[in-house]
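Input C-alpha cells:
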C-alpha cells in the first residue's frame, strides 16, 4: 500500500503542552504545524483562542486538554473547562479520566463523568479523546475503559498524557484497538519521537499520534518519499518529547 505525506501528517496532533513554553514558542509551534499541515495543534488551554486565530484557514484544527494532566478535577470543572475551550475555538478535546476513580473501581463515576463531558462536546459539534494514562493502570482497567468509551461513543481512546512515568507502548495500542469498537479510534501519545515509531503505531491501528517532534518526523517522511524538506525548525518549541 502506498503511503502519502498527507496520510501521515494528518495523523499528528502537534503537542505544545510543556509548561515552560513561552508565548513566542507557542506561536512558532502553531505556525510550524500549519506549515507541515498536520491534523491538529494540542495547546495549553489559555492559548486556545490565539491558536485558533493563528490556524484559521490552514486546515489544521486547534485542540486542547481537559483535566490535565492528572484527571482529578471535579466533573463540573471538566465541563466548565470544556465549555471555555470550545468557546475559544477548540474543535477536539483531550480529557484525562479520573485515574483515582478508575483505580478505585468506581466505574459508575467514571462513566458519568465521560458522558457529561461528551455531552458538552457533542453540543458544540466537536470531538472527544479520552486519555487513560495507562502507565498507572492494569490491563483490566484499560479493557473496562475501552468498554465504557465504546458504549458512550467517544471519538478516540488515548494512551497517555506524556507527563506520566511512561507513554505509549505497542502492547497498549494493540489492546485498546482490540477492545474498542470500530467507531472508536485510538490515539498513541507519549515518547513518540521518530517516524519508525509512528509507522508501528499506525500498523497497530492508531489513527492519531501525539508528538512534539513533528518537524523531525515529517522531514524524515518527506526524505523517504523523495520530497523536498519544508525547512521547519523545532528549535523554538524544543522541549522533552511529549
Amino acid at each position: 500500500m502506498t503511503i502519502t505525506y498527507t496520510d501521515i501528517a494528518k495523523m499528528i496532533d502537534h503537542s505544545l503542552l510543556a509548561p515552560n513554553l513561552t508565548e513566542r514558542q507557542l506561536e512558532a509551534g502553531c505556525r510550524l504545524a500549519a506549515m507541515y499541515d498536520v491534523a491538529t495543534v494540542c495547546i495549553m488551554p489559555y492559548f486556545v483562542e490565539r491558536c485558533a486565530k493563528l490556524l484559521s484557514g490552514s486546515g489544521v484544527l486547534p485542540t486542547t486538554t481537559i483535566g490535565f494532566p492528572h484527571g482529578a478535577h471535579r466533573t463540573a470543572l471538566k465541563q466548565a473547562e470544556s465549555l471555555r475551550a470550545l468557546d475559544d475555538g477548540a474543535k477536539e478535546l483531550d480529557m484525562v479520566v479520573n485515574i483515582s476513580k478508575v483505580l478505585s473501581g468506581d466505574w459508575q463515576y467514571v462513566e458519568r463523568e465521560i458522558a457529561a463531558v461528551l455531552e458538552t462536546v457533542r453540543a458544540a459539534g466537536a470531538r472527544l479523546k479520552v486519555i487513560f494514562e495507562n502507565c498507572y493502570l492494569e490491563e483490566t482497567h484499560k479493557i473496562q475503559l475501552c468498554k465504557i468509551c465504546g458504549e458512550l461513543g467517544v471519538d478516540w481512546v488515548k494512551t497517555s498524557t506524556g507527563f506520566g512515568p511512561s507513554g505509549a507502548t505497542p502492547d497498549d495500542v494493540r489492546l485498546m484497538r482490540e477492545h474498542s469498537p470500530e467507531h472508536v479510534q485510538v490515539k498513541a501519545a507519549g515518547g513518540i519521537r521518530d517516524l519508525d515509531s509512528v509507522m508501528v503505531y499506525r500498523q497497530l491501528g492508531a489513527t492519531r499520534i501525539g508528538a512534539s517532534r513533528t518537524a523531525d518526523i515529517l522531514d524524515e517522511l518527506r526524505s523517504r518519499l523523495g520530497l523536498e524538506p519544508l525547512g521547519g525548525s523545532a528549535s523554538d518549541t524544543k522541549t522533552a518529547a511529549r
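Strands lie at 12-16, 40-43, 61-66, 92-96, 127-131, 156-158, 185-189, 206-211. The chain has one domain: 5-230.
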